[in-house]
Protein: XRE family transcriptional regulator
Amino acid sequence: MNQVKIGRFIADCRKEKHITQAQLAEKLNITNRAVSKWETGKSMPDVSIMVELCGILGITVNELLSGERISMEHYQKKAEKNLIELQEKKEKARKALNRVELIWTIAAVLLAPVHFMINYYYPQNNGTGIGLLILLIGLFLFTGYFLRYYELRLK
Structure:
């Protein structure tokens, strides 16, 4: 999927209907900045409003994801292509999440013994050790939740 192509298609369909960005945004209960980001290819419409957006613009979701009008002869082929691209994007996001989680796990496993050795030889830093451990756990959890949220946004 080409976000810029999809954005241009949204803009063209909106202009065909003689609707401004502000009017479209109002109908979808979003900001006109969100519509602007779609049309410039900086972001994609959220899945939760795609059907409503397509209804307003008079297009199908398949046409929206393709970024072009689709004839009935090519409709099935384009639908399959869009589904494959979405699945590949989802898989890519899942792999990226797994990589980040693996890196954080390795970092925690490597840093924890080093930290405990420092605390063993320099016991006056006990409070620092506990704080560092809590910080690492917090960062690990936050990163995991953030990436899961980001992955959901990609869907």
Observations:
- The chain has seven helices and no strands.
- Residues 81-152 form one domain.
